[in-house]
C-alpha cells in the first residue's frame, strides 16, 4: 500500500457504482455502507453518471460483454476519478486501465478493505496500490516511468511553462478543476511507482528525467506568453 486514505467527515464522499451484476452492486454497497465517510449516490448497469456528479466512480471493466477501458479515458478526461473494478487481472488489462486514467485498479477478489481504501485514497487524490496492481507494476519493465495520459502530459507541459492553471484550462478547453485533477493524477502515478513528486519542481525534474519534456520546452516560452498565445 502507498499513501494514506484521506480523512473526511461522515458521508462526505459520494460514490457511484456501475456493474452489470445486481448482486455485485449489492455487495459493494454493503461493503461501503460500513464506512461512514462514504455515501453511495448512484448505482446502475451502464455508465450514465455525469462526470463530477460524484467524487469517485467504481467501474466494472466488463459491462454486458464489452471491455470499457475507453470509457475510463473519456471519464478521466472530464475530470472524473475512476476506480477500475474487475475480475480480469491480466497485466494488459491492469496497465491499460491505469494508462487510460483510472486512479486505482481493484480486483474483485481483493475484498472490502482494499476497495474502501482505494475509494478514500482516490477521493483525496492520494495513491493506493492494491496487491494486484503492485504485482503488475513490479512485473512491468516500464513501471518506473508512469503511464501519463495525453491530457496529463499537456497539462503538465503548459503548467511547467509558468502558465497559471487558469491559463492552462483555457488553452485545453476544460475547467481549472479538471486541470488540477490532471496534475494531481500525474503526481499520484509517480508516487505509485516509488518516485514521489510533491512539488512543481519535483514534477518538472521527473518529467525531464523521463523525456516527457525537455529544457527547450520550458525556456523561451515567456515571450510567447506576452503575445497572448
Automatic annotation (TrEMBL):
CDD domains per the UniProt record, alphabetical: REC_NarL-like (cd17535)
PROSITE patterns linked to this entry: RESPONSE_REGULATORY (PS50110)
Pfam entry (one): Sigma70_r4_2
One MF annotation (Gene Ontology) recorded for this entry: sigma factor activity
PANTHER family xrefs: TWO-COMPONENT RESPONSE REGULATOR (PTHR43214:SF43)
Modified sites of kind 4-aspartylphosphate: 60
Name under which the protein is recorded: LuxR family transcriptional regulator
Keywords: DNA-binding, Phosphoprotein, Sigma factor, Transcription, Transcription regulation
GO biological process terms, semicolon-separated: DNA-templated transcription initiation; phosphorelay signal transduction system
SMART domains reported in the protein's UniProt record: REC
Amino acid at each position: 500500500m502507498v499513501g494514506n486514505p484521506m480523512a473526511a467527515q461522515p458521508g462526505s464522499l459520494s460514490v457511484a457504482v456501475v456493474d452489470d451484476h445486481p448482486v455485485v452492486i449489492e455487495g459493494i454497497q454493503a461493503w461501503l455502507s460500513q464506512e461512514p465517510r462514504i455515501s453511495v449516490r448512484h448505482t446502475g448497469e451502464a455508465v450514465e453518471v455525469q462526470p463530477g456528479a460524484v467524487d469517485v466512480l467504481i467501474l466494472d471493466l466488463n459491462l454486458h460483454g464489452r471491455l470499457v477501458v475507453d470509457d475510463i479515458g473519456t471519464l478521466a478526461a472530464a475530470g472524473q476519478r475512476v476506480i477500475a473494478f474487475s475480475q480480469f487481472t491480466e497485466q494488459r488489462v491492469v496497465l491499460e486501465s491505469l494508462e487510460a486514467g483510472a486512479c486505482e485498479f481493484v480486483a474483485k477478489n481483493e475484498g472490502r478493505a482494499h476497495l474502501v481504501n482505494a475509494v478514500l485514497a482516490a477521493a483525496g487524490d492520494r495513491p493506493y496500490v492494491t496487491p494486484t496492481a503492485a504485482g503488475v507494476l513490479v512485473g512491468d519493465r516500464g513501471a518506473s516511468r508512469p503511464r501519463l495520459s495525453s491530457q496529463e502530459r499537456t497539462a503538465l507541459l503548459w503548467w511547467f511553462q509558468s502558465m497559471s492553471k487558469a491559463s492552462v484550462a483555457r488553452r485545453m478547453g476544460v475547467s481549472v478543476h479538471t486541470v488540477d485533477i490532471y496534475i494531481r493524477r500525474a503526481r499520484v502515478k509517480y508516487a505509485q511507482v516509488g518516485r514521489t513528486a510533491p512539488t512543481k519542481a519535483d514534477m518538472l525534474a521527473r518529467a525531464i528525467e523521463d523525456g516527457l519534456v525537455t529544457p527547450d520546452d520550458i525556456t523561451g516560452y515567456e515571450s510567447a506568453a506576452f503575445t497572448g498565445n
